[in-house]
Structures are given as C-alpha cells and as structure tokens.
Design goal:
The complex is a heterodimer of chains A (339) and B (357). By secondary structure, chain A is of the alpha+beta class. Chain A is 21% helix and 30% strand. The longest helix of chain A is centred in the middle third of the chain and has 17 residues, at 216-232. Chain B has 2 domains: 6-252, Aminopeptidase; 261-338, RNA polymerase II/Efflux pump adaptor protein, barrel-sandwich hybrid domain (OB fold (Dihydrolipoamide Acetyltransferase, E2P), Beta Barrel). Chain B has helices spanning 60-72, 90-94, 118-133, 161-172, 189-195, 213-229, 343-352; strands at 6-7, 16-25, 33-43, 48-53, 80-85, 136-140, 147-156, 178-182, 199-207, 249-252, 271-272, 277-281, 288-289, 294-299, 309-312, 317-323, 327-328, 333-340.
Chain lengths: 339, 357
C-alpha cells in the first residue's frame, strides 16, 4: 500500500530542490483535498544527512524563520552530504498562531504515528519511517511559543547510550547559547525527538525564547546557532565556532529532570512573574504571584521556588487556570557529571 | 433616571476601602449580569481619580498594577478618592483576547448608548456616571498579545491649552524614557474623557504577550507616581531629574490630518504588510529608522522558494511599536514610527495656530 504522505521532490538527487509533502486534508469544504508541508533538499557529494525541522508547534516561529532563510540561502557547493529542511511542520497552526493543529492535535505528541491514523499521525509516520531512517542528525527547533518565555537555549533529553549522549551534548553546545537545559517529558509520550533518539540519531533541540514575539536578537541566535550546528556536524562548509573561540564564558547547563521543579498553579488567577528566566533563585523564594481576577480585594498568593538554582521558564500569558505550568526552575550541572 | 449598570458600592460617598462590582446586564433576556470588579479608597478631601485597566483584555500590565494598588494602598495614604476598575473587559481578559467575546472593542464603544449592546451600555455608564465623578483618569494600556510598543505613557494633543499642559505633565509623571503623541477617534475612551475636560494619562506598557519584570516595575512606579503628582496619594513626587535620569524623549506619532483608521490594530496601521507570510523583525522598537529602511522582512509561507519581501518604514524617526505575531496577512498593520518633538513645541503649537488663551 502506498503511504498517504507523498513527496514532490527526489530526496536522493544531488543539487537543490524545493517542493512539498502532500497528505489528505480533512475539511468540510473540499473532498480529495491535500495539506502541503513544504520541504527542501540541498545535496552535494558525501557527508552526513541532516534533517532540519521547525514549526512542530505552530506558534514557535523562531526556527521557522531561520529554516525558511536556510532554504533561501543554502547552496549545494556549501554542502558536503545532504540537508533536508521542513521549515513549517504544522502550517495551519502556524497561520493560526496556535501551538496545536486546528484539529486539536499536538504534533509533538503524535509519534511514532500511524499510516492509517488521523493526518497528524500520518505525517508523523512519514517522518518516523521515511525521513528519520535516512538522517544522521535531526534538528527540531522549538521555543516557548506565545504561552511561555524560555531561557533562549539549545536543550536535550538525557539518553542512556553513552556515545549518543556525548554526541548530543556536543551538538547542543554547538548552538553556542549562554544556557542549555536537560529536559524530561512530563506530559506522556509521542515526542518527535524521542522517536529520532530511539532510532539512534544525533538529535539537537532548542527553546529559543517565546512569549508571543521574536526580538531581532533571538532571530540572530536562531540563525547563528543553526548554521554553527550544521558546521559542527560537517554538512556545511566553514569552521565551527565554540564559545571559547567567540570569547564567551562557558555555557551554564541547567538540569531540569526533577519534575518537582515544574511548578503548576494552585488555582485560577492572573500570574505575575517576579523573577525572570536566567535569574538565580533560592529555595522558598517567590518566583511569581497569583492575583485573583474576580476578587481584587484578595491579597496575591506567592508562588515559591522548590529549589535553589535558576529560573528557566515563566508563563507568558497572565490569565491562568488551576494546573497550568507557571514556572520551571533547575539546578546547574557540570558537563563532566552528565557524561 | 437610574442607569442599567448598577454598582454594589458607594462610589461618591463611601469612605475607607470598599470593594464590589459593577453589574452589567448581559442583555440576553435572562436577567443575568456581568460582574466587573470595582473598588474605592477614600479619605477626606482631595481630587477623585479613576484608575482603569483591561479595556483590552490581553493587556495585563495595568490589570496587575491596579490590583497591587488596591492590595497595598490604605485609606490613610489617600487624600481624596481613588476609584479603581482593575479589569474593565473581564470576559476578554479571561480569554486572553483584545476584544470582548462578542467581538466588541471597548475602546471603540464610546460614548456608548443606553439602548446598545452591553459594551456600549458600559461605555455609557463610564461617560455619564463615572467620568463626571472624577477630575483625573489613568487608563492603562499596552501592546497586548498583538504588538510590542516601547514602554511609555502617551497622550492625545488636545486643543485646550491648560488641559494639554495638565495632560503633558501627567504623562511626564510616569517617568518613562519615552512618551508619544497619538490620534484617537471619536469613539475612543480617552476622547470622551477629554471632551469632558478631564486630565487623562494613558500608557502603552510593552505588550507582546510577555511582561518583563522591568515593565511590571514601570507600571507600578508610574501609576503610583502619577497618583502622587495628582495629589491623591501621599509621598514625594519623583521626577526624572530627581531620579538622576536624562529627560524623556517625546515622539510625534499623530496621524496625518488628525485621521485615525478603524482597523483593529490602531496605531500599527502606519506601516502595513505588503505580502502574506512570516515576518522577521530587523529593527527593534526604540531604534532609529530612515524612510525607506526595511524594519522587517516577510518570508514567503506558501512558496518558500520565493525570496523575502522587505517591510519599509515610510518615515524617518524612531520605531515605537511593532506587530508581535509572526504570521502576517497582506494589509495587516505592522509598525509605527514617530518623529522627535520638544515639549515646548507641543505647548507652543496652540499659540502658533492662534487659539484663544
């Protein structure tokens, strides 16, 4: 049986091509309709295959803009190997400024996917079974989206295989951000990076700020980090920078693996951040406070840090429901200890 | 005649600290009401000042500062009366949206009508009941979820010289680094308050769906200093000079010929998106721009093989605000630029045009 996702370009051809993936669109206004997800391929000779992905969540635009720019500017003579770019994985969500697809599907909870599932799972299945197997390196760019402000950083899952862990750590560091973060998946399963990790890939992910607006400095970090990672893995010409070569102090790696450090709101209210991502924090110190929408006479409730370390994420949208994540904190960890 | 909007506290006479609600009929025929929190802090004699926020639901900076004002201000600190409506558009605030769930833009609902939809009935209450009770108004806005504006207080350049001076001095009392002049339409909240002769101070405290600590601090310090400047809150008034800061810069972003567009984006309509796609900011609000300079570029969304399109400034000056959302549709308001103007020039304009006084 043919796969419901088809690709208009030949990913095994040399040179530069831009086309799209097409898969069934379920709509009330047109039968036999397709959703297009644009894909580009720049291939030249021998070298690794790198898959560059963005727009997994629609309202995380930092990587989408960097990937669209990469498709414009990257030429085959700069490449040794192959760079496959999908700049906007979730186009309808991107247009709507939402995290999830209009169907409600979270594409980053759709893996490994099924060819006979709903459209998000069909696309996930194509990545899992067609694209990941041809890639050595998978880059998936995220940010806090409009809902959260995240320390601008590259981050990683701590995988068990020592060789893969070391390669992922070095790939993460090649973004040259001031911070890096070790994350866990607290909301179940189905992540794109986890599926790629399970296939043994070198996976590099980011959280490039967020909060509903992309400042020019973040666009620069998205672009410089992406290019430097491509140089680091040997697919793009040029010498890779390090923080040392740029005259910068070593990055701080924050360990976010303790689920107690992801703090959720005790009730509905209006969240005010007192501290910001990157601020040092002591255990028991207020990171934010909750005001009460219907009760302006009620004093605000302080929300306290469960650990001593740094603030990593704060909620960007003040209106808050009970159980919403309002901030995350973490503790620094030495790279040697991680290895 | 009693107004269809009722208030559960005594706005004019009650002393001390009171908290209650405005009850706005839903108009749905079920007899239901929308409760809107309102509070007063009053002692002795002095001016009456209205502090309002959340005209646009997704502009939370002032909503939080107004709540803090209620929590931290005791009647003994007040000379006169402060009336606080911390979130006017409660449904929009809950929904993280600029507009009411009905689609109404409360800052286009004025002066309001008794026989209109609920937003216009509430506007009518402000116009005919609340505004007449007060001498001064602090109405706190920001760029909300949709845009980022250099954090500042701002004003309309009203025609009455004494009112213009009082509003300029009130605006300056926020002590922000920047101020700007804007044009408001006939159906805006400030326009109606100004027409009643009120001294109104308005703000644009950042926005873009993210409130930094610095902006929370500016909301709080500015609000409390303006209340001190008005003489309703105890304490020494700070000036930029007393804080050791250089003078604020004032920019003129008034519409040509006093025109104002009716697009939802308001201020951002000066520069519009030439194409649909993903916008990348090249210049940050607060930076200078030349006429014709690209302030952003728009990456093609439906055909990534196409090169990006520049979004060009039509003025030389300082970029004051920019659309926050990356996905833009052709014609969306993108940004606005202001030109420097001196405070004396602003005051002298009326003399130059031969207005009386």
């Amino acid at each position: 049986m043919s796969h419901p996702v088809s690709c208009t370009i030949d990913l095994n051809r040399q040179g530069k091509q831009i086309g799209y993936l097409a898969f069934p669109k379920i709509t009330n206004t047109a039968g036999w309709a397709s959703t297009f997800v644009h894909i580009g391929c720049v291939a030249n000779g021998d070298g690794p295959t790198v898959l560059v992905l963005a727009g997994n969540h629609g309202d995380e635009y930092e990587g989408q803009v960097a990937a669209l720019r990469l498709l414009q500017e990257l030429q085959p003579e700069q490449v040794s190997g192959r760079v496959i770019v999908i700049p906007v994985l979730s186009p309808a969500a991107s247009k709507a400024n939402t995290r999830n697809w209009p169907s409600g599907a979270n594409f980053n909870r759709s893996f490994p996917g099924r060819h006979d599932g709903p459209p998000n799972e069909q696309l996930a299945d194509y990545l899992t079974r067609a694209l990941f197997p041809m890639a050595d390196v998978v880059i998936d760019m995220h940010s806090g989206g409009r809902s959260a402000w995240f320390l601008p950083c590259s981050h990683m899952h701590v995988v068990d295989d020592p060789g893969q862990r070391k390669a992922m750590l070095e790939g993460m560091e090649a973004w040259c951000s001031d911070w890096h973060y070790l994350y866990i998946d607290v909301n179940g399963h189905g992540l794109l990076p986890v599926e790629a990790e399970n296939q043994g890939k070198l996976v590099i992910t980011t959280e490039l700020g967020g909060g509903g607006r992309v400042p020019a400095a973040i666009h620069r970090l998205a672009w410089s980090g992406l290019n430097n990672v491509l140089r680091h893995v040997g697919v793009l010409e040029g010498e890779a920078d390090t923080r040392a070569s740029l005259g910068l102090p070593p990055a701080v790696i924050i360990d976010g693996r303790d689920p107690r450090n992801i703090v959720v709101s005790p009730e509905d209210g209006m969240f005010e951040a007192i501290l910001e991502p990157g601020d040092p924090v002591r255990e028991g110190e207020p990171v934010g406070r909750l005001w009460f929408i219907d009760r302006p006479d009620r004093p605000a409730e302080l929300l306290l840090s469960p650990c001593t370390g740094y603030v990593v994420v704060t909620k960007a949208i003040p209106v808050t429901e009970q159980g919403d994540s309002v901030f995350c904190v973490g503790t620094p960890i030495d790279r040697a200890a991680l290895l | 005649m009693s107004h269809p909007v009722t208030c559960t506290i005594d706005l004019a006479g009650g002393g001390g600290k009171q908290a209650g609600e405005l009850l706005l009929p839903t108009g749905s025929g079920d007899g239901g009401t929308i409760p809107i929190p309102i509070a007063t802090i009053a002692t002795g004699t002095g001016p009456t000042v209205l502090v309002s926020a959340g005209t646009h639901g997704d502009e939370y900076e002032g909503q939080i500062a107004a709540r803090r004002l209620l929590a931290e201000t005791e009647p003994a600190q007040v000379s006169g009366r402060i009336i606080v409506v911390p979130t006017i558009s409660t449904g929009a605030s809950q929904a993280h949206s600029r507009f009411w769930p009905s689609g109404a833009n409360f800052n286009r609902s004025f002066p309001g009508r008794l026989d209109g939809p609920p937003d216009e009935v509430l506007a009518h209450f402000f116009t005919t009941v609340l505004f007449p009770l007060v001498e001064m108004i602090v109405e706190i806005h920001s760029g909300g979820g949709g845009s980022w504006i250099v954090p500042c207080s701002h004003m309309c350049a009203v025609d009455d010289p004494a009112q213009r001076r009082a509003m300029l001095e009130g605006m300056e009392a926020w002590n922000s680094d920047v101020h700007f002049l804007y044009t408001a339409g006939d159906n805006y909240f400030p326009t109606i308050a100004q027409a009643q002769g009120k001294t109104i101070v308005t703000t644009e405290l950042g926005g873009a769906g993210l409130i930094s600590r610095a902006v929370h601090e500016l909301a709080w310090s500015g609000l409390t200093n303006v209340l001190r400047h008005f003489g309703v809150l105890e304490g020494e008034v700070a000036t930029r000079a007393s804080l050791g800061l250089p003078p604020a810069r004032i920019y003129d972003a008034r519409g040509a010929d006093e025109t104002v567009t009716e697009l939802g984006s308001g201020l951002m309509d000066q520069v519009r998106a030439p194409v649909t796609g993903l916008a990348e900011a090249l210049v940050e609000p607060g930076e200078t721009v030349e006429c014709g300079q690209p302030i952003a570029r728009i990456w093609a969304f439906d055909d990534p093989s196409q090169p990006p399109t520049g979004v060009l400034s039509e003025r030389t000056g300082v970029l004051l605000g920019m659309r926050a959302r990356s996905f833009v549709t052709q014609g969306n308001g993108m940004a606005f630029v202001g030109e420097p103007i001196g405070r004396e020039a602003l005051l002298a304009e009326l003399a130059a045009t031969g207005d009386p006084e």
